[in-house]
Amino acid sequence: MAKEKKKGEVKLYGEIYPYGINSAADFIARFDEARKGADEVNLLLHTQGGDVQEGTLIYNHIKGCGVKVNVIVAGVSCSMGTVIMMAAAKVYMCENSYMMVHAPKGGCYGTAAEMEKAAKGLRGMEKNFKKVYASKTGKSEKEVEELLVGDNWFTAQEAMDAKLIDGIVEPIATGVTQVSAEELKMQTPKALYSRFAACLEETTEGTEGNGVLKNCNNQKNESEMDKEGLIKKFGLTGVTAQSTDKEIEDAIQVKLDAEKNRADNAEAAMQAANKKRITDTVNAAAKAGKIQAGQTATFMAIGEKSGVEALETVLGGMKPAPSLVEVTRGGAANMAGAANGARADWGWEQWQKEDPRGLEALAKSEPEKFEALYKATFKG
Length: 380
Hints:
Elements: E1 7-13, H1 24-34, E2 40-47, H2 52-63, E3 68-78, H3 80-85, E4 90-94, E5 98-101, H4 112-137, E6 152-155, H5 156-161, E7 167-169, H6 181-186, H7 189-197, E8 200-201, E9 212-213, H8 219-223, H9 227-234, H10 245-287, H11 296-306, H12 308-316, H13 324-340, H14 348-354, H15 356-365, H16 367-378
Parallel strand pairs: 1-2, 2-3, 3-4, 3-5, 4-7
Antiparallel strand pairs: 5-6, 8-9
Helix pairs in contact: 1-2, 4-10, 9-10, 10-11, 10-12, 11-12, 13-15, 14-15, 15-16
GO molecular function: ATP-dependent peptidase activity; ATPase binding; serine-type endopeptidase activity
Protein name: ATP-dependent Clp protease proteolytic subunit
Keywords: Coiled coil, Cytoplasm, Hydrolase, Protease, Serine protease
């Protein structure tokens, strides 16, 4: 008879944060305790996301733990939670659960250089996210880019169709009803998280004594909009918990539009500052004689495509081009030097026939040699 596999169980419920029970340090300690002597570990997930750095530590630990890990989304998995999911060997969603994927977000206030640095960091995170999603879905990083445009909500079936999960299991929180497609578009991670949170209860029952999800039938509260939570989350003004759903939705839209305008303005300012820096760098190189006027467009394109740092590196290794006078003088000197070598036996007439310009240069570079040739021909 085959030996029954021993399974450990650990939960990650709530926001991923540098402090508290959902910090990387605390979670890893719980996870390692759950996998002691276990053949595989079930991770019950219900999170609205959180800190990218902490989430990355959790992802890396699960990925390299050496034990098969199965993730089961019991409620919602948003933002960084969806990245953590991808570390598991198998990912399952309860049929009434949700996941939401979007690009990493962050704020910045400061100089253009500081804003560029922050944007560079976010782009690096986006690149890592794309690799994770591409690996799970079997798609290219280019194909999964659309997942990072806006907030992308998935039902369990939609996540299955998108190859983001491996299967769908029966609901654990049976009292939570699904929202419509239109309602889903208006939801925030916090609001949907709260719908399931009412059905989560720590008990001494369940696998390995780590607690289970308790069924609840609080249908009325779950179907209502979390107005107070939304007002607090978005910092809404002009509305209260007694306002209608439509008024709350309109206030959120106004807030989102304002945030988008601020983000667009910040992005435009950053791009303008970057364009000015590239232009100034190219103009300085042209002024120093490193590039010619006809080359400015080429070097502007290098800066815009590869970044101003790459442009500065390229231009920094270039030396100013010699002037026409310097080229002429240098060429004449070289020619005169050659006359002392390979043309040492030339007479005046041969110089006049073969290289009259070289003869002129010889008069400047080696006047004594020139005078000797002249005298040998005309004063002999």
